[in-house]
Specification:
Blueprint: E1 5-8, E2 11-15, E3 20-21, E4 24-31, H1 40-56, E5 60-66, E6 70-76, H2 83-101, H3 108-111, E7 116-125, H4 130-138
Antiparallel strand pairs: 1-2, 2-3, 4-6, 4-7, 5-6
Length: 144
């Protein structure tokens, strides 16, 4: 069940029992050897699987899209989730399930048992630009 939302400073944020947060990450996963995902059906299946993984982590997959050799995700996740654990689960499950379901379309010897490359990109996003946060902190009054 999704956590309740609260509007703070004009932004829709999520609320837990003792925390209000708005954490988003942009993740990019690349296919093994940059070989393409054969079709849109397989890409849609990856999205379904990744949505379920996010739900298990109490996260929300906000956006999903991809090209032949990589996929992009925008995930809204709670602070109790270790980002590396979330990414590893997303990569692992999204690699195993579609590969098992689409065995004829995936060249197993080339993939060496994996659909995605072991590397990935993640970047935090959302909220104020970094310089705005730095300026805000610099303007705070120091205690006497």
């Amino acid at each position: 069940m999704p956590l309740p939302y609260v509007t703070t400073m004009g932004t829709k944020t999520r609320r837990g029992r003792t925390v209000v947060y708005n954490l988003h990450v942009h993740a990019v996963f690349v296919t093994k050897y940059r070989r393409g995902i054969p079709n849109n059906e397989m890409l849609m299946r990856c999205e379904e699987v990744m949505r379920r993984v996010c739900e298990a982590f109490e996260a929300e997959l906000k956006e999903f899209n991809g090209e032949a050799d990589h996929i992009h995700l925008l995930v809204h996740y709670p602070p109790k989730v270790a980002l590396a654990s979330l990414v590893n689960s997303l990569k692992g499950v999204s690699s195993r399930r579609p590969r098992a379901e689409f065995t004829r379309r995936v060249n197993r010897p080339i993939m060496h048992g994996r659909l995605s490359s072991p590397s990935y990109f993640t970047g935090s996003c959302g909220g104020a630009p970094l310089q705005a946060v730095k300026d805000y902190i610099a303007r705070q009054k120091r205690p006497n």
